[in-house]
């Protein structure tokens, strides 16, 4: 069977599974729609959380960044993984004990204000739409290559699938769909990694193959080989970083606290029965995530070595006698690889300096990796199914956050408090449908490559939600005025900085060079400054204004005090 036939088969079977789960788990109440009824087992929730977390950025783009950036790409590994430790220890059990449906729900009740709730709704929608743009773009890339349709058509197909199981099943449908999607994506990521590790190093464990000698008998270590290739082609050594220490620290910290502040991740801990289960879910999620994250550096290195060795010097003249690998021609059709024969010798050459003739989108590296290594067609198709599973699982979680923010926090809590549960559920589904359409447009007209856009979403979450939640749990003196002022300042500062330097939503207004960065911090890490501003403003304003009502301070004390040695429920 051809790659396309295998892709249709595997993707079709996985989509049928997702739709079947959605039909089986269709919901009839708002509690099931928002938090899956609060009865998800910690292991299943950990698996669903891992799928929700390991988006197209993790599956498709992270290894691509590491493959091109080398050591500098390690910030994504450290930041995204470390964030779950923060989440498990600092936030998850307390938020579960609070027992609400959404993050804006927590902010609105904790800060006893519809204004605070509205600001949180705006932040949730802003962060979620920024994040979901990368997911829908990832869907389009997979479809454009493996099903040979254009990216726009691919995004529309992905929208239809997500619409079906997110609108019909809500959080209940999404949760059990994400369990299936995790199984698909981790299998799809590990199988080619194991194959290629054996081919390159003779070691079946990719994490060990990453530090092993090549299997060609040369006695050269893989990373030494990669350093040599990089320097010969004008790049910095692969194992050495070029970022400043402060920028590495800022990006890593922004990703960590951004993880702990992402609303679609936090809401997963509202779906378990007990407070203790929230922490257990986070532990299982870390384990499931580690399988992919410890493999990603190996995949990046394998892909980089194979890519350089198969491209440079390949003959691109004619069709019958060309020696260029088929994977280059296949990806050229998508426009994600282009070739400009500068010296008219008919041969491709990839380098950093003026000799370079290739433009390669880093988002293709994981998807193209099996083709570059000439693995069987079914493995190539399996990776396509895994990429779709990763993108769709996270997109669904984000769309539910947007839906619940509109229907529950905005309409039910503020605009139309008298609506019935049935009406609220209808509005939630309508909001989810509208969010799918907007997400699709962002996928068709994306504001950047996948992992870069996602990194911005983390910066925004770090600058808005994380301080409000931490202070809301651990500082009962923080009041409505402080929280609102802090979130607004954090959001406005971070958005303005990113837009100014990256032109995410408009043309760049300044050169994106370190000399112009505040304290030498790149846009990817600026969420740390936004977070610090939020903390300072919230803390300072709260001390200059009246304290929260006594019942709110008592509620904060109650959240922090264990009830029944971990057996507490959400009941108050």
From TrEMBL:
GO terms assigned for molecular function: symporter activity
Chief site of localization: membrane
Keyword Transmembrane found: yes
Gene3D superfamilies found in the cross-reference section: Sodium/glucose cotransporter
Domain of life assignment: Bacteria
Membrane protein topology class: Multi-pass membrane protein
A single Gene Ontology CC term: plasma membrane
Annotated InterPro entries: Na/Glc_symporter_sf, Na/solute_symporter, Na/solute_symporter_CS, Na/solute_symporter_VC_2705, Sodium:Solute_Symporter
TM region positions: 6-24, 77-95, 116-134, 146-167, 179-200, 248-270, 282-303, 377-406, 426-447, 453-474, 483-505, 517-541
Gene Ontology terms describing biological process: carboxylic acid transport; sodium ion transport
Keywords: Cell membrane, Ion transport, Membrane, Sodium, Sodium transport, Symport, Transmembrane, Transmembrane helix, Transport
Subcellular location field: Membrane
Short name of any one Pfam family annotated for the protein: SSF
Membership in a protein family: Belongs to the sodium:solute symporter (SSF) (TC 2.A.21) family.
Name of this chain's protein: Cation acetate symporter
């Amino acid at each position: 069977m051809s790659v396309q036939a295998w892709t249709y088969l595997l993707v079709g079977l996985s989509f049928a599974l997702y739709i079947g789960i959605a039909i089986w788990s269709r919901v009839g109440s708002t509690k099931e729609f928002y938090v899956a009824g609060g009865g998800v087992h910690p292991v299943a929730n950990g698996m669903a959380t891992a799928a929700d977390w390991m988006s197209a950025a993790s599956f498709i783009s992270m290894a691509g960044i590491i493959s091109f950036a080398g050591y500098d790409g390690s910030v994504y590994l450290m930041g995204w993984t470390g964030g779950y430790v923060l989440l498990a220890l600092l936030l998850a059990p307390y938020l579960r004990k609070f027992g609400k449906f959404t993050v804006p729900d927590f902010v609105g009740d904790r800060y006893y204000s519809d204004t605070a709730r509205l600001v949180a709704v705006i932040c949730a929608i802003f962060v979620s739409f920024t994040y979901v743009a990368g997911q829908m773009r990832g869907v389009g890339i997979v479809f454009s290559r493996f099903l040979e349709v254009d990216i726009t058509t691919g995004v529309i197909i992905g929208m239809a699938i997500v619409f079906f199981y997110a609108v019909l099943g809500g959080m209940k449908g999404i949760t059990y769909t994400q369990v299936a999607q995790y199984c698909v994506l981790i299998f799809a990521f590990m199988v080619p990694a194991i194959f290629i590790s054996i081919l390159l190093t003779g070691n079946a464990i990719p994490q060990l193959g990453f530090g092993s000698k090549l299997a060609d008998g040369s006695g050269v270590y893989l990373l030494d080989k990669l350093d040599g290739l990089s320097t010969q082609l004008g790049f910095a050594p692969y194992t050495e970083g070029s970022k400043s220490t402060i920028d590495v620290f800022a990006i890593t910290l922004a990703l960590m606290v951004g993880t702990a502040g992402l609303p679609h991740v936090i809401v997963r801990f509202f779906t378990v029965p007990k407070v203790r289960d929230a922490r257990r879910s986070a532990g299982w999620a870390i384990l499931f995530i580690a399988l992919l994250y410890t493999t990603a550096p190996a995949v990046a290195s394998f892909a980089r070595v194979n890519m350089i060795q198969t491209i440079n010097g390949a003959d691109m003249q004619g069709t019958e006698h060309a020696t260029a690998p088929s994977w280059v021609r296949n990806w050229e059709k998508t426009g994600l690889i282009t070739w400009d024969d500068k010296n008219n010798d008919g041969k491709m050459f990839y380098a950093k300096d003026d000799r370079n003739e290739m433009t390669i989108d880093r988002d293709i590296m994981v998807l193209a990796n099996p083709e570059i290594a000439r693995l069987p067609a079914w493995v190539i198709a399996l990776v396509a199914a895994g990429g779709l599973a990763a993108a769709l699982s996270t997109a669904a979680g984000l769309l539910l956050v947007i839906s619940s923010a509109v229907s529950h926090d905005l309409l039910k809590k503020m605009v139309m408090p008298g609506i019935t549960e049935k009406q609220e559920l209808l509005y939630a589904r309508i909001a989810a449908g509208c969010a799918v359409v907007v997400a699709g447009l962002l996928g068709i007209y994306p504001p950047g490559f996948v992992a870069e856009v996602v990194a911005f979403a983390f910066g925004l979450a770090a600058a808005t939600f994380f301080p409000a939640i931490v202070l809301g749990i651990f500082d009962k003196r923080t009041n409505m005025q402080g929280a609102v002022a802090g979130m607004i300042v954090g959001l406005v500062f971070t958005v303005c900085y990113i837009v100014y330097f990256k032109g995410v939503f408009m043309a760049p207004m300044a050169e994106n060079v370190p000399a112009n960065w505040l304290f030498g911090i790149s846009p990817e890490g600026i969420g740390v400054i936004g977070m610090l501003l939020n903390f300072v403003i919230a803390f300072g304003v709260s001390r200059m204004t009246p304290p929260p009502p006594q019942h709110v301070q008592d509620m904060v004390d109650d959240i922090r005090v264990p009830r029944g040695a971990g057996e507490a429920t959400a009941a108050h």
